[in-house]
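Sample intake — DUF2232 domain-containing protein
Collected from: Rhodoblastus acidophilus
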Amino acid sequence: MNDNNPPTDWSDRLVGFGAGLASALLFAASTRGTGLAMALAYVCILPLLIGAIGFSALASLAGAGAGALFLAYAGEPLLGIAFFLGFGVPGFLLGLLAGWTYRLQTPDDASGSSTKLLAYHLSPGVLLAGAVLVSACAAWTLTGALIWSEGGFHAALDAALAEYGPALDPTLQKLAKVAPDLDLAQAKKIIVLSFPGAVAASQTLLLTFNLWLAARAIDISGRLDRPWPPLPEMTVLPRGLGLAFLLAVGLCFAGESVAVFAGAFAASAGVALALQGLAAAHALTRGHSQRGAILASVYAVTLVGVAVAPPLLIALVACGLAESALSLRARKAARAKIAKIEETGE
């Protein structure tokens, strides 16, 4: 419950329900295949997140469920299931985390003889880690459902190769001219096995972007029950996520059936670590005379990596891992605090 806002009433629940239903309708419109439809696909979860964070998470989930049932009734049952599992449930869980409030006893004076109860919210870094887990679980669910429906992992892989392999042939044949030793069949299999990872990575980015947009919209409307956090300094992932990422990368070499699930988590966590690397770049260059040039270079590398050279993004992931291991931003803040104390003598 929001500490600074009145308890959720029926008007909040109605708005939340409408937001979830609106997300379902946007998702249905995004399947038309036009340019505008593709743009809608990236923001179809936005109304649901706004409803879940600013009004009522359960009502937003109910609205998403109603929208999924409407899609199923309209003759698109698979579309309804895909929306509810891929957007409805993840949006509800992330909205629930974003609105979560917990209370701790803290000292009320210097002696610590008295305490007071303060309300806290999950940090942006924890929310980003939540987006990783939600996205990975969504990819695992879709992959597991495909494996179950086809009667086993190898049967599902063969079905995916038969479905998507012909579309990959022209590109692979062009690569074969540059690299004659390329095993086309093996390359095709690796690409198909990477599909769950691509789904998890794109879902993490989509959830994070829409969560930021939703929080901004709620903040502007005056319903955000906390001050806007300084994202470059507070986007700090739990250290365990970096270790889990490295473990998942190692498991990618443990066999195809393990790699497809480990790769989904590694891709999702890699996106989060790259975002933490960007946040660290913003925080560490604050006050630097060449900050603009440095950040321009970082974003240029990021855009090139996203557009044409994904291996370049490994540098950002490495920055995120370094931040998790060394707490570079915290060290800079501590040095600045010590320098201020020495300067003022306090």
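Post-analysis note: Confidence is low (pLDDT under 50) at residues 1-7.
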